[in-house]
Each structure stands twice: as C-alpha cells, then as structure tokens.
Fold each of these.
Amino acid sequence: MSATTPHTSNAHKAQFLAPETHQRADRANRMDTDYTAILQEALTKPGTVNAAYRAFHNFSIGNQILAAIQLTEKGLPLSPIASFNAWKEKGRFVRKGEKAISLFMPVTVKNRKAAADQSAGDGDEAVTFSVYMLRPNWFSLDQTEGEDFAPELVTPQWDAAAAMAVLGIAEEPFEQLRGNLLGYADGQRIAISPLNPFKHKTRFHEIAHIVLGHTAEGEMTDGPTTPRDIREAEAEGVAYILCTLLDLPGQAESRNYIQTWLDGGALPEKSAKKIFGAADKIMKAGRPVAH
Ligand SMILES: [Zn+2]
C-alpha cells in the first residue's frame, strides 16, 4: 500500500521531517519517528521484543515494538492488529471512539519540482522516492467487536542453516591461528570460535556484519579487545534484537554493550534504523516457510 504525497505537504513535514514541532505529541508518537528510542525500549524491556513478535509477526520488528508500546500505553494486551477495513473483512468493527495506533509505512513521495525541471518530460515522469512515515491505520482486536476471531500467535523460530543459505553466507571452520577471537566475518564467510560461550549470539553478530555491508569495507574480527567501533555497536545491536526475539542467552552481555553507546548518545539514529533493518532481514531469512 502506498500513497502519493507532494514534497510540500505540511503533514509530511510535521510527521516525519520535524517531529520536534509536535509539542503535545504523546510518547508513542515521538517514538515512531525515532529508531533510537525504539531500540532503547527493546533494551529496557527485553521481553517486549519476543511478545511483540508473537502478536505482530507479519510486521517489521521495529513496527512490532511500536505496536507493543502503544497498546501497553492504552492499557490493552498485545493482541493482533489490523486496519479498519481488514477487520471489516473479518466481520469485526472498530468500536466508536477508539484511536488508531500508528506504524511506519512506506510512502511514495512525488517530487513535483524535480519533475517540472525535466522540461522534456511529459509530466507523468515525476521523480519519486519512498520514505517511511507514521500512519495511524491500525486497531487491535480489543478495540473491535463482532464475529469471533481466534488470534494466531506465532512462536518465533529461526534456522541458522536456512538463513545462511538465503543470505548467501557460508560458515567455515574457525582458524585456530586467530588466537583468542570469538569469531570473524570475511566477505560472505563467517567463523565462530569453538570456545565461544555464546555461539549463537556471535553468529548473529558476524552475519550482521555481512548484512550491514561492513565486510565489504574490510574483514571484521571480534575478540575481547575489539575496538568500540560504530560498526561493532550496529552488529551487536542486531545480535541483541535477535537474541531477545528468540529468547536466547547472552542478552545481558549484549545489552550492556549497546546501552553504553546509547547512554553516551553516540549511536546515531541512522545506525539504530540499520539495526532493525538487518535484524528483519536475518530473521526473515531463517524463518520456516509459511504454509
Ligand atoms: Zn564485530
């Protein structure tokens, strides 16, 4: 689903480009425009990531957490969400007075000025690009009434071999010569030390380096003395999200590392956004094929 919004749209500016102008915006709305805040929520309430996946598995991980935040603030349980019309198709109707929850949606923006500048163009050749904007389109099951609806809760599952095949990544035997490293990523290959206490966490971390494009910039090696590079914060952020989503050990270790970055205010919004994008891609790659 997409909509066309001229680049001069006030709504566009207010909701996406200048969230600070929303002086009375509630907490959820501010969070919708800020992936760093969504990451902070995941770090302070790790259980949310797993619970949100179960309820909202069809949505991106960032939107899952956003939905969880907003329902919790309304005092509602985490139950399935759908648009007004999608509920209608299921024979249910949004109760009067219920306010929609907002999620990020891709919106195609048509740049009319750029189109006009193309003097030879026929007017339909507008330059378009996609931006993710906050859209209040969703209602939870508990905000609706009508025919019975049995929610389908999905248990998060992830298969390493399937994910690696989809992502075109190979795991090779760990080279002992690499000393006390925990793991490394090189090109499209990763390796995990047999002595690593959290192999799955490091596997996510190394896969993340590849998905985030880091290995295209050079080989990534991870040991106890790895420098606190921004790329490390990004890769570990992905590992943290996936460990909490799948409820695997190593979350506290991972959390402390990321928290240090966020507390210092040094992790840019762009990095937080990249973390959720990569976590989504890796999670989807390893998900059992839908029926
Ligand atoms: Zn690393």
Note: The first strand starts at residue 4 and ends at 6.
Amino acid sequence: MNIGIELAPALRQPKIIVEEKRKNVVNDVPNVILTLKNKESLVITSDAYHGIIMGREMYRCVFCKMEIELNSKSKELHKNIAKHKKILEDYPHLEDFGQNLIRKMDKSSYYCTLCTVIVSSMLVFRHTSSESHIQQLKRAISKSSTYTPSQ
Ligand SMILES: [Zn+2]
Ligand SMILES: [Zn+2]
C-alpha cells in the first residue's frame, strides 16, 4: 500500500498540499498498543489507558482523582507527570480479567479501560459480559490487526 505522496513534476503539482497535511493531523488520535500474556494485542486510545475521562467542563484523571483543563495540551502534560505515571503503575490491569483490561481502584470499584467507565465491584462481572463491553473489546482487537505504531 502506497501512502506517500508522489511528487508530480513542478508544473503539475496541485495547489492543495497544505490541506492534505491538515487532514492527517486531525486523524492522528494517540493510541496505545497493549500486548497481553497470551500474545494477543489490543489497541486503545491513550486517554483510556491513562484513565482520563472527558467531563462537561474538565478532563478528569480517575487515578489521581484530579481535574485537568479541557485542552489536549494540559491532558498530554498530565500523562507525563511522574506522579501520575507512578500512580498508574499502582493500578495494573488485573490478570484475572485478561483482555477485559480491568484495573482495581479500591475495594468497591474497578476501572474498565476499554469502556473508560468506573464499575462497582458488585457489577464488574456483569459489566465484562455486557454487550457494549464486548463490542469495545472486539473493536480493540480488530484495531490491533491494522495498527502500525508511529515512530
Ligand atoms: Zn493522573
Ligand atoms: Zn468495559
């Protein structure tokens, strides 16, 4: 598959090259690829992985339990804060849930990375067998078959 732009001779070059570039930027949603123990790969958005949920007026980091200004620059900065990275390590995806990508938050709640929702401990098994969760899982698996990490 050829995705590069072939250079036409100078006289024939189209005038809309700038617009082509802009389109590429818009489509560039940061993703994270996770490879599980069984070698299966899942592709999810970077926000989902980091536990960042979009609220009405703010982003919220469910693990740091803090609000972040609603702009992508503040959000990307938050993901790189050492404290956030450390906290994220304290909430690994539970092996028992495998590809369902469930992190335990505390005794009574779990975070589903695939759906970016917080689920109570009583409902977590019902959640992972729900139709909407299964759809998210299928999407993450199918994305991984076409995903090529950017440099
Ligand atoms: Zn955080
Ligand atoms: Zn889910």
Note: Residues 30-144 form one domain.
